[in-house]
Amino acid sequence: MIGSTLLAASSLAAMVAAYDTTFGFNGAPIIETRTLDEIHQAALAEGGIVTAWHGGDETNQQDGLKAAFETRFPGMTLNITVDVSKFHDGNIDRQLALSAPGRPGALYVDTAILQTLHDYPRWDLEGALLHYRPVNFDKIHPAFRDVRGAWHGVSIFAWTFIWNSDREGDGPQEFADFLEPRFKDRLVLTYPNDDDAVLYAFDLIMQQFGYEWFEKLLAQNPRWVRGTGTPVTLLTSPNTTVSATFTAGIGLLPMAPLNVSIPSQGSFVTWAQRAATFKDAPHPEGAKLLHNFMLSDEYQSTTGSWSVRKDVAPPAGYPAIMDVNTTNPVEFERFMGDRVRVERLKLFFEDKIGTAQGLSPLIDDL
């Protein structure tokens, strides 16, 4: 009888934890006033560990962040796992579902930095996120941060035009350029039905230039691949002849022989990759240290791309992100939130180009 009562109480507590938290009226954030070194000491006292899940499609994509963080903060270990955001979020949901009273340790991720922007308001409404404002929070563009500090952007992702200058003397400058005869059999593109951000790119392009543009693109016989890192790999591979893509991002300061450009007529995709700390994270101080580091001057000024901060200048030759006429980094969240429309678009492209073929980009050795 006692066991049944405890089980019922535990189940009730789990149900309550998933309720809308609006009327709790306890959403005030913790406002950080400590220095990085002071947070570092608190994180060391906590165990010196932070477990982060980061969206991406190559396992080594965040090796630079791990190295920079661990070098800057001796004694800290950043356990960072890269996987596609659409899989990370489901596994996080599973941990949250199991982390009810009586299931200690079910939630072992401290922080999530993902492309699935629509997950964060939901997690916040469920009471899963820590309301916390790191140092420099107020310098983030207001559109990239939650007013209560439940989440904030940490980096700007952008699908630019990328080409190998050893294979193309003049790179594409507009979406129409990809239809030129010189790009026949030389384009490498990510399946739009396998990545929502690439899907959004095709949606933007075709809404502006029509279905005829897509028909002409198909006539170019592009190579379809999985993952947004794969096109970049193939552009520099000696075993391929592909020369250009518009479904990947390498920042605005690429290394030769790669070059980048952004269109002046069509709309291209940008968004602020979103970060949050879970309220019941095992290492909250470690997560706070990571977020403060990623928003610091020393990190934001070295990303080679636009910053989520208003006061950090973009690379030379580029306007501030909010002044680029052909992109709107805020709109991506609206797109991601309309899951019915997203799924309809996925099925449309699956019908036209087939299901995504090949191994996951995380294990395909490309």
Describe what you observe in this structure.
The structure is a single chain. The protein is α/β, with parallel strands linked by helices and 366 residues long. The chain folds into 2 domains: 26-157 and 271-318, Periplasmic binding protein-like II (D-Maltodextrin-Binding Protein, domain 2); 160-268 and 330-353, 3-Layer(aba) Sandwich (D-Maltodextrin-Binding Protein, domain 2), CATH 3.40.190. Helix content is 34%, strand content 16%. The chain has 12 helices and 12 strands. It has helices spanning 2-17, 36-46, 63-72, 85-98, 119-125, 196-209, 211-219, 230-235, 284-294, 297-300, 331-337, 339-353, and strands at 30-31, 49-55, 77-83, 111-114, 132-133, 152-158, 160-164, 188-190, 223-225, 244-248, 258-261, 270-277. The strands form 4 sheets. Strands 3-2-4-12-6 form a 5-stranded mixed beta sheet, with helices on both faces. The protein has a 3-stranded antiparallel beta sheet with strand order 10-7-11. Strand 2 (49-55), helix 3 and strand 3 form a beta-alpha-beta unit. Helix 2 packs antiparallel against helix 9 and helix 6 (196-209) crosses helix 7. The radius of gyration is 22 Å and the shape is globular. The chain starts with a helix and ends in a 13-residue tail after the last helix. The model is unreliable at 1-17 (pLDDT under 50).
